[in-house]
Task: inverse folding
């Protein structure tokens, strides 16, 4: 009897840790990519009460972008095995309607419990899907060798410092050399690939600070995804517009930044 109870609990423990294994998260992303390519959300293993939002607006999953078949040219993901979440960047430059889509999913077991996407297309900040695709593909996002990986805290702190520095230029950001930023389709690293071209000066005041940060942290990749509300940039949304930053951190220093920001008015009215 005791033997059986022990066996059952061992089984449960194994299941609980397997739920957030990298493999389970990777499978969910493979299913997500298939669902997006087919325009068929039912290919994604969903919890009964799954929530779905696009650009911070709760949306019927059968009416959103996930229900449109999209030609995917490139995709890149990071996996958070502690928080059971994933971050995926989809480049769809050759799709009839070009998109860049950034998606954060959370899982319980092998089921997806929430899907949040920032869906960018023509008129969004510095949008150029062909440029985004070409730079995203060129970058090397290799896993960090074991023993050289940063802790979750170090990875998160690098990204937070970057976002905090927009409000306060005195915040020290651990930019690496080199560091390159892809903002929409425009790239800072095109002139000198060996330099740190990521430095972002403080934004003009009033700048309320970057709020509503939702993180995905991947120690193996040095990856950090931050969904956030980006203030100031969109003149019609001074308190923030839906935005994501996807960073690669190596040895505590920022190597790559991808920003995708949605605008309510063409190019955020700028
Ligand atoms: C969905 O259901 C699960 C299990 O019943 C629960 O833990 C979770 O909070 C629910 N999520 C939402 C968004 O309601
Ligand atoms: C998505 O990315 C994975 C991993 O790089 C790749 O194997 C797969 O072919 C990509 N899928 C599409 C539709 O581009
Ligand atoms: C490129 O950047 C590196 C590192 O900052 C610097 O040493 C080098 O002189 C730069 N090259 C050019 C052509 O500006």
Result:
């Amino acid at each position: 009897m005791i033997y059986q109870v022990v066996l059952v609990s061992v089984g449960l423990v194994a299941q609980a840790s397997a739920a957030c294994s990298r493999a389970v998260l990777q499978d969910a992303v493979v299913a997500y990519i298939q669902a997006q390519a087919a325009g068929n959300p039912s290919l994604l293993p969903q919890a009964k009460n799954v929530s779905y939002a696009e650009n911070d607006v709760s949306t019927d999953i059968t009416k959103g972008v996930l229900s449109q078949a999209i030609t995917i040219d490139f995709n890149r993901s990071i996996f958070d095995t502690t928080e059971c979440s994933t971050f995926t960047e989809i480049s769809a430059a050759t799709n009839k309607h070009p998109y860049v889509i950034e998606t954060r999913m959370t899982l319980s077991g092998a089921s997806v419990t929430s899907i949040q996407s920032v869906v960018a297309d023509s008129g969004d900040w510095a949008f150029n899907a062909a440029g985004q695709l070409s730079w995203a593909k060129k970058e090397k996002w290799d896993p960090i060798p074991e023993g050289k990986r940063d802790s979750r805290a170090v990875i998160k702190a690098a990204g937070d410092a970057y976002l905090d520095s927009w409000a306060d230029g005195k915040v020290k950001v651990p930019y690496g050399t080199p560091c390159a930023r892809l903002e929409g389709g425009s790239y800072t690293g095109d002139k000198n690939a060996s330099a740190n071209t990521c430095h972002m000066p403080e934004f003009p005041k009033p700048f309320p600070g970057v709020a509503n940060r939702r993180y995905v942290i991947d120690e193996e990749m040095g990856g950090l995804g931050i969904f956030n509300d980006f203030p100031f940039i969109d003149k019609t949304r001074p308190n923030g517009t839906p935005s994501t930053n996807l960073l690669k951190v190596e040895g505590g220093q920022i190597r790559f930044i991808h920003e995708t920001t949605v605008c309510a008015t063409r190019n955020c009215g700028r």
